[in-house]
Amino acid sequence: MKVIIVGGGIGGLAAYHALRTYLPSNVSIKVYESYPTPKTATSLVGGGIGIFPNGLRALNAISPSSVLYLRAHGNAWPYFVVRNQNGTTLGRLGGVQDRILLPRASAHESLLLDIPDGVVEWGRKAIEVRETADAAQVVFEDGTIETCDLIIGADGVKSVCRQALFGEEAYRLQYDGTTTIGGFAPFVSLTPALQSSIKADQAVMTLSHNRSFTYALSLPTSTSVNEQQVMFWSTYASNTSPPHCQASEDIRAILMQRHGPWYDSAFRQIIAAVSRPTTADPRFTK
């Protein structure tokens, strides 16, 4: 039996580990990813994420090495301090020890561990998925065709696998009115007072009418000041989906407009210190 996974992101790599764990060893499993190299793919997989106890348990069942990597490269934080836009503390959310905040890129790196050479083929962009009388086929941009018994689609919002199953119209993506902006700021660029505050709280979620702003340490608390990063994500309601490409300064201006007037200079400091290219990502439904 031969299985092809289209897409080598977090979902595709997790699918590989699950199949490799529970299927017989004689089953062939291949992963095809459009990005040309692992480094390229990892550098473009987004901002920060949180992995909760259920996610860590599931991951440990299929890739214990990944969990060890996550623990070594993330911030194991026990709770969020929740405040409103005026600075009033509303409470603490969580209280569970076994969860991790870290860059999404680190999660992707963790899933590349223990995958033998040659399993993931980079620079292979799938443009069509089809069935024959007795097999399934993936057609690639370079004209090559791979045949298999089972295809797993993990190729994102523009999935050719979904289109092959349902057509273009049946599950066309619909913007649900919510936009998220995430990124990172160098910890060393913040004032000593804000550094102390973040070290004390580790993760802060501020809520307001139709918007929120959350920030937290994204690396282990033992990380040096010069290397530590603060991850943040802003979520807000908007009637229109953001443009596909926006200049970093335009996105910074959006963040300042939505969160700059809030009570605390922390928001303005973090937004001003954003160090990596940041995108405004629409949330889709359907």
UniProtKB/TrEMBL annotation:
<keyword id="KW-0560">Oxidoreductase</keyword>
<keyword id="KW-0503">Monooxygenase</keyword>
<dbReference type="GO" id="GO:0004497">
    <property type="term" value="F:monooxygenase activity"/>
</dbReference>
<dbReference type="GO" id="GO:0071949">
    <property type="term" value="F:FAD binding"/>
</dbReference>
<dbReference type="InterPro" id="IPR036188">
    <property type="entry name" value="FAD/NAD-bd_sf"/>
</dbReference>
<comment type="similarity">
    <text>Belongs to the paxM FAD-dependent monooxygenase family.</text>
</comment>
<protein>
    <recommendedName>
        <fullName>FAD-binding domain-containing protein</fullName>
    </recommendedName>
</protein>
<keyword id="KW-0274">FAD</keyword>
<keyword id="KW-0285">Flavoprotein</keyword>
<feature type="domain" description="FAD-binding">
    <location>
        <begin position="136"/>
        <end position="260"/>
    </location>
</feature>
<dbReference type="InterPro" id="IPR002938">
    <property type="entry name" value="FAD-bd"/>
</dbReference>
<dbReference type="Pfam" id="PF01494">
    <property type="entry name" value="FAD_binding_3"/>
</dbReference>
<dbReference type="Pfam" id="PF13450">
    <property type="entry name" value="NAD_binding_8"/>
</dbReference>
<dbReference type="InterPro" id="IPR050493">
    <property type="entry name" value="FAD-dep_Monooxygenase_BioMet"/>
</dbReference>
